Sequence to fold (110 residues):
Amino acid sequence: MKKKQKEPPAPIERHETIRRSIISIIEGQTLSAKEISGSVSIPEKEVYEHLEHIRKTVNTIDAHLVITSAECAKCGFVFRKRERLKKPGKCPICRSEFIHEPLFLIKKAL
Ligand SMILES: [Zn+2]
Fold:
């Protein structure tokens, strides 16, 4: 008789599951990474990593990731040209650290 071995954890599949939940959460509702992190129960840092991946792959499901740029709450400077999605630390103009977080939304093509 063969012993049934316990399956090892499959991190890739787990990531896929998390990405699918993130996509379904921000489909039709605009949320910050912090809000997503609360809904999916993963750290905010990981949410950004998943969002980077989603941004590159979401076109395969006929959708795209709409990003509302982070904005300085003090002087209104908009962080448009950011390669990375993550919230910036401080404003390059007025040095304020009070930054409105970037927001994310999945829009499906009709
Ligand atoms: Zn500023």
User: Anything to note?
Assistant: The helical segments are 11-25, 33-40, 44-57.
